[in-house]
Structures are given as C-alpha cells and as structure tokens.
Design goal:
The complex is a heterodimer of chains A (245) and B (114). Chain A is mostly helical and 245 residues long. In chain A, 70% of the residues lie in helices and 0% in strands. Chain A is built from 9 helices and no strands. The chains are: A mainly alpha (245), B mainly alpha (114).
C-alpha cells in the first residue's frame, strides 16, 4: 500500500473514530460532576473498614486486589519477555571504561543515590497512609540504583544488582503476592481477602494484609525495573563494542 | 466547556494513532503507542473528578471530606506501570528487528523470513 493511500484511508477512518469517540464521551457526566456510587462508597467506608488513610492503596491492594495480581503478572511477563529477547544473543560485554570522571558529579550523584533510596523506601512504607505505595516507591528505589550507574560506573551498578539476586527478588515479589492471596484462602475467607490485625489508623501498623501486599509489589516493581535497566545497559555495550576497554 | 478533558483524551488518542500509522521508525512507533495509552489516564482521571473535592487520602483531613473517585486513580496507577514495561518490551523487539534486518523502518519489513 502506498503512503498516500494509507494516509487517505487513515484520514477517513480517524475522522469516523473521532466522531464516534466524541459522541461516546458526550454521554458521560459533566467534568467535575462525578456521580458515583463506587467512589463515594469506598471513600466513606474504607478508612473505617480497613484502617487505612490512602483509599487508593486500599483499592489497589484490597478491594481490587485480584486486579493487581493480574497486573503484577503482566509486569512479570513483559520483563521476562525483555530478558528472553535480549539476554541470550549477547556475547560477554567485558569491561567497559565508562567511569564518571568528574569528581563533583560523582560525589553529588552518589550522595543523591542514598537519599533517593531512603525516599523510595519511605514512599513504599507509607503507601497506605499518604500518597505513594509499592508501585511508585518501587520505581523510586530502582532509580536510586540507576543513579549509581549514571554518577559512578556500570561495574558498580552491576555489583549492586547481581542478576541472580534480582531475578529471585522479582520472582518472590510476584509469587509472594499470590501466596498472600492463598493465605487468605487457608484462613477460610476469599482469595486475597484482607486478613491480619487492622491496627491503628494512621500508623505503619495498620491495614492488615494491605501492608504485606504493598511490600510484595514494591519488591516486584523495583526488581523488574532493575532487570530492565540491566538488560538495556548490557545491550548498549554489546551494540557499541568500541565502548569496551 | 465541561467536556473539554474528555475531548482532550480523544485528541491524544487520535494523534498517537496518526503517529503509529505514519511512523517510519519502530522506536518512534513505540513512543506513539505510549502517547495513545496516556489518553486513558486523562480519560480515567477526568471521569472520577469532582469539583472542589480533595485526593482520596484521609491522612490529615477530617473524615467525610468530599474526595474524588479512588477507583479510577487505582486503575490509572496500574496502567502507568504496565505501559512502561510494555514499552520496554517493544523497545527490546525493536533492538531484535534492527539486529536481524538492519532496519527500523516498518515499511521495509515486508515478508516474513524464516
């Protein structure tokens, strides 16, 4: 198909699609006039029912926890896909001379890596109290490690994130989530139903099994991102052999 | 004007689709697909928005404060994570295409080769 013909076809069908979508969204409630009911019900009942202050976390790890299980496995599967596609075709990248030569960037960068790691762990730990959670915090934790590569060198990053260990973390994050669901079953309730003492609202000891699922997803997300970084960085050295020393 | 955020979501989706259709580079195509996906965040979050309401986090506000819908926020949250990892998978595929065929132009990838 020629480019012109394809563009013409696209113009016609995109106009039709746009009209259809606009017609569809015109049937939605006015912006800013959300009618509910689920949001209102959850906002009214979740803080009292689950002793958490972040209702979004309660939805992710409790009311729609089964959804998040599927999402964790999408994450797991796509990271495994990346590893399968990139891992076996490489030869040994060898040593690379990519150390950051500016002492100022090194010092400030590595200093920020520590701050970023603590911030990430804070965002994870307080996930069900304040904005944050396992997903957001997991990404922040992983970015602390990538900062070691940016401000330091690749070898230091690899030493901090050995693939064998990160693989195990990723698997146990995804598997742990499912295991917590099975624990609910063994305790006689539905799969992924909240269990454990609900604790005091507003403290770290609250939310029952939401806290465990939060940690499992943080483990999964941070390990998944570290694996992605590793795979693409290894690829960089395989594609650019002159970068080796 | 109260339908403007929804129209914005439609616009982002169609613009991303235009990029996918006309793309001459697989990396550009993957980024356009991310643009398309980001229209779902705009749509989800604007559906759940309530005038004058706060975020659905009751850490330091009294109980019973009007808050926006937490369900769509949770959906957008998982959407973002999935979008990023799928983008990574697509970029890995683009690397493999470049290695096997020495081109990133989807138009030049005509026939399947064994």
């Amino acid at each position: 198909m020629s480019r012109g013909l394809r563009l013409g076809l696209f113009a016609v069908s995109a106009a039709g699609l746009t009209a259809l979508l606009l017609w569809g969204v015109a049937g939605l409630p006015d912006f800013g006039h959300y009618r509910g009911p689920y949001g209102f019900v959850l906002n009214a009942s979740a803080p009292g029912e689950r002793h958490v202050t972040n209702v979004v976390a309660a939805v992710v790890f409790d009311y729609r926890g089964f959804d998040t299980l599927g999402e964790e496995f999408i994450l797991f599967a796509s990271v495994m896909g990346v590893a399968l596609l990139l891992r076996d075709v490489r030869d040994d990248p060898g040593r690379r001379d990519d150390a950051m030569r500016s002492d100022a960037v090194r010092m400030v960068g590595l200093g920020f890596a520590a701050v970023l790691l603590v911030t990430g762990l804070y965002v994870v730990a307080h996930g069900y109290l304040t904005p944050g959670g396992g997903f957001q915090g997991g990404v922040v934790v992983a970015s602390a490690f990538i900062l070691v590569y940016l401000a330091g060198e690749y070898r230091a990053y690899r030493r901090l994130t050995p693939t064998a260990a990160v693989d195990v973390f990723e698997g146990s994050g995804a598997g742990g989530y499912a295991v917590i669901g099975v624990v609910s079953l063994l305790l006689g309730s539905a799969f992924l139903h909240n269990f454990g003492p609900l604790g005091t609202s507003g403290t770290l000891a609250s939310g029952g099994s939401i806290a465990f699922l939060n940690v499992a997803s943080a483990l999964e997300v941070s390990a998944a991102f570290m694996l992605l970084f590793t795979e693409f960085l290894e690829e960089l050295s395989a594609l650019r052999p002159e970068a080796r020393s | 004007m109260s339908y403007l955020p929804y129209a914005l979501a439609v616009w982002i989706f169609v613009v991303g689709l235009y990029g996918v259709v006309t793309s001459r580079n697989l990396i550009h195509l993957a980024v356009c697909l991310s643009v398309m996906q980001s229209s779902t965040y705009v749509l989800l979050l604007s559906i759940g928005y309530l005038n004058g309401a706060t975020a659905p986090i009751f850490a330091d506000v009294p109980k019973g404060t009007r808050a926006v819908d937490p369900v769509v926020q949770a959906l957008a949250l998982t959407d973002v994570v999935v979008s990023v990892t799928v983008l990574a998978l697509l970029l890995a595929l683009a690397i493999q295409v470049q290695k096997r065929t020495e081109t990133l132009d989807p138009d030049e990838l005509r026939a399947m080769r064994g």
